Amino acid sequence: MTAHLSILIMIFMERKQYVDYCKSDNSKATDDQFIVALSLSIALLVFELIIFLLGTSLLRNKVTFATTLLHSAGAISLSFMVFTRWCSISFWPVFAICSFVPFFIEIINAIGHNITN
Questions:
Q1: Distance set, CA 24 to CA 19, 76, 90 (Å)
Q2: Exposed site from 37, 52, 67, 101, fewest CB < 10 Å?
Q3: Is the pLDDT of residue 58 over 80?
Q4: Any idea of the CA torsion for 64, 66, 1, 84, to the nearest 10 degrees?
Q5: Is residue 103 within 8 Å of 44, Cβ to Cβ?
């Protein structure tokens, strides 16, 4: 999770070059979309990290395995984005699979944990 977050922050700081890799006429709109996607991803990861540190999913092996697997895939995908110079528009599938799905799993788990306790 921290590797995923670190790479996201690094991409956020250097986001202009990923917008420039796109063959788009409207660079400003692409940059704005990329800022929104990166900001959402970072916010979801920080929120998920807080939930994780509170311990609601710490002892649930399947939840921990699923989120670890998805965040690892996110870190690897974003590493490919850095090294192979993907266009910023290619970030949306990575966001959907590797940021939103683990966040959704953690939220469902936290709600379920609070109901049972």
A1: 9, 26, 13
A2: 101
A3: no
A4: 160
A5: yes
Condensed to tens digits (0 to 9), the pLDDT of residues 1-21 reads: 889 899 999 999 988 888 888
Give the end-to-end CA distance of the chain in Å, rounded to a whole number.
26
| Average pLDDT estimate for 41-50 | 91
Three-state SS sequence of the chain: CHHHHHHHHHHHHCHHHHHHCCCCCCHHHHHHHHHHHHHHHHHHHHHHHHHHHHCCCCCCHHHHHHHHHHHHHHHHHHHHHHHHCCCHHHHHHHHHHHHHHHHHHHHHHHHHHHHHC
Distance CA 61, CA 103 (A): 16
Q: How far apart are CA 24 and CA 52, in angstroms?
A: 39
What integer pLDDT is reported at residue 113 of this predicted model?
Answer: 63
Angle at 14 between CA 92 and CA 106, to 5 degrees: 45
